[in-house]
Design goal:
Phage integrase, N-terminal SAM-like domain, DNA-binding, 0% strand, globular, Integrase_SAM-like_N, DNA binding, 3 helices, 53 residues, Integrase_recombinase_N
Length: 53
């Protein structure tokens, strides 16, 4: 295992979760479409990186 391996990207995690829940491909496409504007910049912290402040 590579020590510098990055965690999966947000969209990859969303797609994996949708597939595990066995949603339709159309639903996956729609969810990803709606999430894209909410996560526009790759250098912003992901929700699990925010923590309590």
């Amino acid at each position: 295992m590579d020590a510098h391996r990055r965690p999966p990207k947000l969209m990859d995690r969303v797609k994996a979760t949708i597939r595990v829940k066995r949603y339709s491909p159309r639903t996956e496409k729609t969810y990803c479409y709606w999430i894209q504007p909410l996560h526009p910049f790759p250098w912003r912290a992901t929700p699990c990186q925010h923590g309590s402040q």
